[in-house]
């Protein structure tokens, strides 16, 4: 069975979100004759192969009908919900999905029979009396088919709808579009980066991973960036990721070995495309004025784990200890004691000063989870916030933190002045400041997380109606994971908090640089990017 047909079967399992005809509970439906289109149909630039498509477009009474499969409907910006009480609801949304061919080995008959849907239907909140429609919704192969009339396609859904005797029917929707990138099929099984005119990706060759880069305008002109062995006692460890560091440098990282005895490796890609390993271990690192500051997260957690690698030296053997050797740096202790540890928020470097979460050896309650400033030249170590914190981040000349006692977000200037309460609600485990905006998650009375934007007047604004499992900031863009399973993938917000897209595709990796987004999908390992129509107008 082909991979694409496996995807189609999976989509049928997802059918709770499909516009499918429920079994039982309804009166018998009328049967009508339908035919395959004898003209070309193009959906968002994709030519539909109707003769060999599992769910082809159909024609009834000279009107083309569109199959509302899970991926087809979302590719055109439509979401459907079904309940036994309310029937089928179809809603225009900022959702998107890649184009799926639903390829079939069996050729479709030129004509067939479909049924007129008899269940309750609403479109954009308006009820549809399907029995009285000149062009009613149909069901075929247990999938609901929608008539592409001008009233629906143009007026209700806002699609660009054109007919030409030579070109046939063309439909273009105004939701964000995922454009498939023509990289080797195996590239989608790992992370992909789009960086300064090149796609960076990984192919596995036997017991080695090979990192390549290819120009955006000539994918065949690839060149090797870096090669490394992936065979260990734990098997072939293929996973490799890309990230941006130090404002605008492209790095790659991968893990070798076990969880405790293994280690991470961090490589940097030079402007000429050459990759080299710069650091090894479990650590966070950031450049300072006179070298690289490292927080060592080796386990078990132990004190004296803040280091400086001076400039012109490479390798941890050249590192020197900085800060108070009796402090445990970088770790947060959620229970205020030594029984549990979690990696805290990353350290932040400003000039020769390192801001880092620290606890004094002995783990007395009044010495845990404080922010300290360590000067890398004088080694002066100073507590900068008088309260214990659970998270912190430095943005510009301000330091943001969540106080451990009350769970509200505060900030103050790096010179130690003007402490301000910044959130009107208690914040949970995430917050970020992007382009001067502060966002955070807060629990409602039912225990669900919602995303808020802090406002100057104290009336913080809820950004999304969806309950969220988590939010991550990637290059100042907000990547939200829904908690209710309504979308299979992610909700993406731009740095201003504006909704960009709701991903119907499950996403395994995502990379953002200069406003360009490239992703790999979980189920079928497609490499896709958000197209030019991705920006939603106010």
Would you give an account of this structure?
This protein is mostly beta strands and 538 residues long. It has a domain at 3-175. Helix content is 4%, strand content 46%. The protein is built from three helices and 52 strands. It has a six-stranded antiparallel beta sheet, with no helix packed on it. A hairpin with an 8-residue loop joins strand 47 and strand 48. The radius of gyration is 27 Å and the shape is globular.
Helix content percent band: under 10%
- Low-confidence region ranges: 1-28, 532-538
How many runs of DSSP E, i.e. beta strands?
A: 52
How far is it from the N-terminal to the C-terminal residue, by CA? Answer: 45 Å
Broad shape: globular
How large, in whole angstroms, is the Cα Rg? 27 Å
What fraction of residues sit in β-strands?
over 45%
Report the major sheet. Answer: 6 strands, antiparallel
Q: How many helix segments?
A: 3
Mean pLDDT rating: 87
Structural class: mainly beta
Which strand order spans the largest sheet, edge to edge or round the barrel? 1-9-12-13-5-4
């Amino acid at each position: 069975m082909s991979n694409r047909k496996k995807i189609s079967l999976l989509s049928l399992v997802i059918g709770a979100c499909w516009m499918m005809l429920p079994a039982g509970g309804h009166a018998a439906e009328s049967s009508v004759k339908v035919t395959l289109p004898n003209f070309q149909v193009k959906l968002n630039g994709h030519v539909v192969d109707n003769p060999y498509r599992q769910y082809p477009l159909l024609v009834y009474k000279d009107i083309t009908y569109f199959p509302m499969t899970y991926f087809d409907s979302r590719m055109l910006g439509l979401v459907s919900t079904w309940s036994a009480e309310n029937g089928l609801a179809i809603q225009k949304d900022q959702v998107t999905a890649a184009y799926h061919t639903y390829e079939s080995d069996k050729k479709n008959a030129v004509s067939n029979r479909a049924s007129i849907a008899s269940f309750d239907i609403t479109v954009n909140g308006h009820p549809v009396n399907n029995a009285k429609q000149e062009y009613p919704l149909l069901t075929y192969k247990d999938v609901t088919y929608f008539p592409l009339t001008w009233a629906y396609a143009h007026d209700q859904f806002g699609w660009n709808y054109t007919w030409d005797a030579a070109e046939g029917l063309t439909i273009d929707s105004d939701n964000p579009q995922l454009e498939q990138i023509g990289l080797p099929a195996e590239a989608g099984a790992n992370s992909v980066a789009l960086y300064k005119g090149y796609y960076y990706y990984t192919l596995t060759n036997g017991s080695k991973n090979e990192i390549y880069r290819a120009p955006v305008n000539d994918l065949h002109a690839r060149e090797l960036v870096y090669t490394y062995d992936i065979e260990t006692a734990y098997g072939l460890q293929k996973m490799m990721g890309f990230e941006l560091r130090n404002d605008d440098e492209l790095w790659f990282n991968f893990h070798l070995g076990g969880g405790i005895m293994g280690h991470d490796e961090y490589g940097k890609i030079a402007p000429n495309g050459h990759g080299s390993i710069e650091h090894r271990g479990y650590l966070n690192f950031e450049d300072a004025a006179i070298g690289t500051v490292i927080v060592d997260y080796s386990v078990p957690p132990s004190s004296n784990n803040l280091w400086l690698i001076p400039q012109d030296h490479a390798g941890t053997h050249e590192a020197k200890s900085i800060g108070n050797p009796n402090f445990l740096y970088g770790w947060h202790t959620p229970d205020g004691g030594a029984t549990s540890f979690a990696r805290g928020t990353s350290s932040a470097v400003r000039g020769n000063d390192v801001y880092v979460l620290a606890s004094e050896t002995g783990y007395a309650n009044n010495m845990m989870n404080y922010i300290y400033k360590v000067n890398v030249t004088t080694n002066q170590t100073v507590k900068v916030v008088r309260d214990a914190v659970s998270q912190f981040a430095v943005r510009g000349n301000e330091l943001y933190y969540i106080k451990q006692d009350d769970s509200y977000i505060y900030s103050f200037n790096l010179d130690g002045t003007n402490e301000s309460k910044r959130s009107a609600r208690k914040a949970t485990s995430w917050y970020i400041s992007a382009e001067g905006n502060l966002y955070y998650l807060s629990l409602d009375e039912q225990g669900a997380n919602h995303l808020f934007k802090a406002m100057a007047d104290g009336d913080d604004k809820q950004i999304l109606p969806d309950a969220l499992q988590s939010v991550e900031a990637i290059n100042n863009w907000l990547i939200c994971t829904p908690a209710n399973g309504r979308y299979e993938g992610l909700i993406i917000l731009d740095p201003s908090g504006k909704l960009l897209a709701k991903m119907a595709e499950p996403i395994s990796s995502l990379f953002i640089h200069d406003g360009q987004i490239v992703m790999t999908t979980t189920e079928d390992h497609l490499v896709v990017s958000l197209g030019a129509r991705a920006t939603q107008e106010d």
